[in-house]
Amino acid sequence: MLFDSITSYADTGNFDGRSIFQGMGFMICQTLLFVAAWKAIDSYVSHNGPIAQARTFTFLNSWAYSAASFVLMILIASPSHEKTARSLYHASKFWEYIDVLGVRAGGGLIDLHFAFHHLTTPYLSYVRVVLHSDGWRVLAMLNTLHHGLMYAYFGGAGLLRPALEVTGTIQLVVGISGEAWMLWARLGKAEEVVWPHAVGLGLLSSYLVLWVRDVRMRRRQHVGDGQSSTKEE
After folding, report:
1. Contact by Cβ (8 Å): 186, 192
2. Which residues cross the membrane (predicted)?
3. Looking at the predicted structure, is the pLDDT value of residue 5 above 50?
């Protein structure tokens, strides 16, 4: 059902206002459901402590998501599977909700970057992959590579830690540069659609600001690998 909802709004080359509105209605509803689940778990943990086996579940989910990310990266690289890859890439952003819920269920805290990123990336992929896919493949491949490494790290592959700052920075810089270039190239042209690139540029720039903030905080505080709840998105 979720997959059908996503594919029904795939980019057809034009922007039908009614379809966009219907799709955004679905997006808002799923966000409200996620926030409700998050608040319910937060309330439970605040009063009763961490949920038993939540950390084990999050550990297993990290390895599953890491493997899925690498498979998805290969699929994205195949032009013959573009529509499927775009739909699955968008769907993967809903899977990341499990990470937030699992971390909180295990007693971890959800910081600003972690919360903002997971709340907004489904909208970024909806606008820049489902509705308007121009130039989507490069950033999506870098993003799935980063997530594959990152979730393997959260699953216990500590040796990957140094690579995460590199892949995390590269994906954002490349994404921002690409959106800025496409936005600039289309400005002033009556038949060109520019708002998806403006949305992408705004969100990716916000992620970069939060990302740099987190990197500086980790370095300053010398947070140990097992102590940080910050996700290196």
Report:
1. yes
2. 20-38, 59-78, 193-212
3. no
